[in-house]
Specification:
By secondary structure, the chain is an alpha/beta fold. It is built from nine helices and eight strands. The chain has one domain: Divalent-metal-dependent TIM barrel enzymes (TIM Barrel, Alpha-Beta Barrel).
């Protein structure tokens, strides 16, 4: 079982500061989110090696089209092909593609958007397979992404794509908003398709800052025999995507919540 975290939540732009903090808290691995147009792949790979942090995937936070006219199937595929190539260069074996949701035009119907996402995923899975790259699609809440918010929708995509290199991701915070039953969501995805489970409480902070029943979700993971990646995506109250960097007090709070959550996980961990 591997514990990982996600780079955007740290609010750190300097790679040395980022990897040092990941190491300090005690995580084994990192899902990197930095803009591939800004961070040279060779430098990211070098820092991961220096700090002995495994890169489990590339999750581009900057994943929206720059203008509405680019919201097309073709543009979305071209963008994510570049993302896949970058992931390969930094040595990450996985790319997240839930950002495909942003490449659908604002006026599209649900069915039109879903069909575009499915078609893009099909073509990208073929491209990724040729590079031995895994794709993951995460169900994010409806306040953050236009489409695909539930485990049921993830499974609909997977059934239409039918690719071995497409895996799915669930997060406790997102499920708390959009799932009627988070336990059923975990069970429906199952061990074979679930790439990672993300830890983030109901207010998006660390464990015990909200009301999510983690023992029950841990039991559900155990019941499906999940042995994959547990990814901590903790966001403190005053920090959010694109609000960088953290100040000293915010960073101290973030480290405190992250350390506590990791310790709490190990106490509740059903595989111990």
């Amino acid at each position: 079982m591997k514990t990982a975290t996600i780079s955007w939540t740290f609010g750190l732009e300097n790679l040395d500061e980022l990897f040092a903090k990941v190491k300090e808290i005690g995580f084994d691995a990192l899902q990197f989110c930095g803009d591939f147009k800004i961070y040279p792949a060779s430098e990211v790979k070098k820092k991961a090696h220096e700090y002995q942090i495994e890169l489990i995937g590339y999750d581009p936070l900057e994943c929206k089209p720059s203008k509405e006219s680019e919201s097309t199937l073709e543009h979305s595929i071209n963008f994510y092909k570049d993302v896949i190539d970058y992931a390969l260069e930094i040595g990450a074996p996985m790319v997240t593609i839930q950002g495909l949701s942003f490449w659908c035009k604002s006026g599209q119907t649900y069915q039109e958007a879903l069909e575009q996402i499915i078609q893009a995923t099909k073509e990208l899975s073929i491209y990724a397979e040729g590079k031995e790259m895994t794709l993951t699609y995460e169900a994010c809440n409806h306040y953050e992404t236009p489409w695909i918010h539930t485990a049921e929708e993830l499974l609909r995509i997977q059934r239409n794509v039918l690719s071995e290199n497409l895996k799915l991701v669930l997060e406790s915070f997102h499920m708390n908003i959009n799932e009627k039953d988070s336990i059923e969501a975990i069970q429906s995805i199952g061990e074979k398709l679930l790439f990672s489970y993300h830890v983030s409480d109901s207010g998006r902070g660390g464990i015990d800052t909200g009301h999510i029943d983690y023992p029950s979700q841990f039991k559900a993971l155990k019941d499906i025999d999940f042995k994959g990646i547990i990814c901590f995506e903790i966001v403190t109250k005053e920090v959010r995507p694109f609000k960088f960097p953290m100040n000293k007090n915010q960073m101290e709070d973030f480290v405190k919540q992250s350390t506590y959550s990791l310790q709490k996980w190990n106490e509740l961990n059903p595989w111990v």
